[in-house]
Amino acid sequence: MIPAAPIATQHAPVQPRWQQSWRDAVRDPRELLALLGLGQVAMGISDAAAAQFPLRVPRGFVARMRRGDPADPLLRQVLPLDEELRPVPGFSLDAVGDGAAKAADGVIRKYRGRALLVSTGSCAVHCRYCFRRHFPYAEETAAAAGWRGAIDLIGADASIEEVILSGGDPWSLATAKLAELTDALAAVPHLKRLRIHTRLPVVLPERIDRALLDWVAHLPWPVTVVLHANHAAEFDASVDAALAQLRAAGLTLLNQAVLLAGVNDSVDALAALSERGFEAGVLPYYLHQLDRVQGAAHFEVSDDDARRLHAGLAARLSGYLVPKLVREVAGDSGKRPL
Ligand SMILES: *Cc1c(COP(=O)(O)O)cnc(C)c1O
Ligand code: SF4
Description:
- The chain is an alpha/beta fold and 338 residues long.
- It has 14 helices and 10 strands.
- It has helices at residues 17-23, 29-35, 47-52, 59-62, 73-78, 98-101, 137-140, 148-156, 175-185, 200-203, 210-217, 237-248, 267-279, 303-316, and strands at residues 102-104, 107-108, 114-118, 162-166, 193-197, 223-228, 252-258, 283-288, 324-327, 336-337.
- Helix 13 crosses helix 14 (303-316).
- The protein is globular.
- The chain binds pyridoxal-5'-phosphate and iron/sulfur cluster (SF4).
- Residues 108, 110-111, 114, 116, 164, 334-335 line the site of pyridoxal-5'-phosphate.
């Protein structure tokens, strides 16, 4: 895009294009269905589920859904359904024990050498299976506290070698806000790596703009971006272009996916995801068993089926295209292999 005037002569701060796309997201389940030619289909939409955790999906992501297909794997990830309200034993509000592992405002210390920052509560897309759908974000994000608690804690603990920006989606924060954090962390001598867990390059590739690329290019550590895509159809040319720019900036790109019934619970779908990701310069990292969070039970795949799918994948693909099948267990020292 060509700016209307050179940046230096503009007086009012110009809103980055990605923030406009962000705000323009679809938020009405009925509008979403109408856009997909599914206006006549009731599909078990739940206003009550949407009131608990609103629908939100960027229009560019909607454009990758198949029109007229109520079973589209991208649609299924975002549409609020009646099934979410069914109470299922074993599915709880804090499925992964984050409440207990909180070390400071927005900082979760569970694994050796790593501190995870719940940077912000915002996401460009709302994934119905998300384990953070019940997380008390407002008072507990690292950015809301001006990063102060996080910076003090990381600076004071020499065992922390890697900072993981998670969320919510850390790239939903303004680039200047991110730079505040990394400028302060640059003075921490024991820090060796930075990791960013984000779904934005996939769901809102406009986010990978010049300002963001300038920021990542000047970070003093090796940076790994762990993306989150669950289905090959989530990639398109706009995503490819965004990822190519991140790779050109020297970042390592990995993907984590969640095993989801009706979305990617077949060897074909998982193989296509790994292969499509690789075409875009991304290696698979984790395939997560679903966190047992209230409202997500209809996405669960049994452990036996998960193992069978994973074995099928390993029998078909090069080793480096096979993600590790894991589950997060509260109190464990790392993700537990299945
Ligand atoms: C998943 C997770 C990490 C990162 O684990 P890796 O196995 O290194 O990817 C770190 N901290 C917390 C709290 C996590 O949930
Ligand atoms: S992008 Fe990640 S954190 Fe945000 S709703 Fe989806 S799964 Fe949850």
